[in-house]
């Protein structure tokens, strides 16, 4: 019997992975030792009060993604790390982080509840961590994340140690979508998604060096933008280079046709100099890249994965800062 791996299938089909980052207002990351069950919050270390809160938030359809995270020390430490990443308003470079160190995982639900009600919490801590990188290793949810995610996590923790990147933390994470792109990663606080990674490409992303064209293959998109706009943002990255990662961006869909085959989008960005540009673009359904695929190892049916191409782009406004000496 042939064993089906959705990530092998996606690679063989030549699927373009851009436009597959999910757009959430908030990520709530809870440190919890493994093992995790297929539905992560049913795992044995997750207390009932947290499980109920996650279900409540889901029922209320709040734009919040709860994830379990762990590293190689999670089963030994005598505290629980809780990270809340909240999307910044307007022109932004991603998410704002709040970090809490709690005596145990039983305290998490009460702190999150207070946070949801806007009540100030005194267990917040300051850290020098600049980036939290989540690698999906959730093999009980999809076997590709065990097959590709787990060894990748092992290799890249060694890479960050070699590079002496003390302000970068690498976490194993429960499922956040796109297991067919395993190994798949979210880079916070930006909220950018990557997939089909190997350690060399990951090193480029970590250090923002090397050929920017490498993103063509591994960039899933920026989670602060709607899926169709992620295609436009990738084109701008390839044009601007690694400098783009220092820009603040905002984007929106202005119009879309009833069949969704044509979208008019707007993307504004501000450079560190203060120069501000607004582009509009016509995005059209890309018939050559839109295809039917099995999106996970466990599914029996194929889904239509629609991809967009940038048909035309024009500048609608620009305000260039000039410095007089």
Brief synopsis:
It contains 7 helices and 16 strands. It has 325 residues and is an alpha+beta fold.
Structure description:
This protein is α+β, with helices and mostly antiparallel strands and 325 residues long. The chain folds into two domains: 19-216, Glutaredoxin (3-Layer(aba) Sandwich); 227-319, Nuclear Transport Factor 2, Chain: A (Roll). It is 23% helix and 31% strand. The protein is built from seven helices and 16 strands. The strands form three sheets. A ten-stranded mixed sheet has the order 5-4-3-1-2-7-6-8-9-10. It has a four-stranded antiparallel sheet with strand order 11-12-13-16. It is globular and about 55 Å long. The model has no long low-confidence stretch (mean pLDDT 87).
């Amino acid at each position: 019997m042939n064993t089906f791996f959705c990530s092998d299938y996606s690679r063989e089909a030549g699927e373009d992975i851009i436009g597959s980052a999910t757009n959430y207002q908030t990520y709530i990351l809870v440190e919890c030792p493994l093992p995790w069950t297929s539905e992560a919050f049913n795992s044995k270390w997750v207390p009932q009060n947290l499980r109920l809160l996650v279900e409540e938030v889901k029922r209320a359809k709040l734009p919040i993604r709860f994830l379990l995270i762990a590293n190689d020390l999670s089963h030994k430490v005598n505290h629980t790390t809780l990270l809340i990443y909240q999307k910044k308003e307007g022109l932004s470079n991603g998410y704002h982080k709040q970090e809490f160190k709690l005596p145990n995982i039983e305290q998490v639900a009460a702190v999150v509840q207070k946070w949801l009600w806007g009540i100030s919490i005194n267990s917040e801590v300051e850290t020098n961590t600049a980036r939290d990188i989540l690698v999906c290793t959730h093999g009980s949810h999809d076997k590709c994340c065990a097959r590709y995610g787990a060894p990748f996590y092992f290799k890249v923790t060694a890479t960050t140690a070699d590079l002496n990147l003390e302000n970068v933390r690498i976490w194993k994470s429960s499922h956040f979508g796109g297991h067919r792109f395993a190994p798949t990663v979210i880079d916070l606080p930006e909220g950018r998604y990557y997939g089909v990674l190997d350690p060399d490409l990951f090193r480029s992303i970590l250090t923002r060096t090397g050929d920017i064209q490498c993103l063509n293959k591994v960039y899933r998109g920026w989670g602060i933008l709607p899926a169709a706009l992620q295609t436009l943002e990738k084109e701008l990255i390839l044009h601007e280079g690694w400098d783009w990662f220092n820009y603040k961006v905002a984007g929106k869909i202005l119009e879309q046709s009833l069949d969704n085959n044509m979208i008019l989008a707007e993307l504004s960005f501000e450079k560190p100099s203060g120069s501000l540009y607004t582009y509009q673009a016509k995005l059209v359904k890309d018939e050559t890249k839109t295809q039917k695929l099995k999106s996970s190892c466990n599914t029996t049916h194929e889904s239509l994965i629609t991809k967009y191409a940038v048909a035309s782009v024009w500048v609608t406004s620009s305000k260039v800062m000039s410095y007089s000496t």
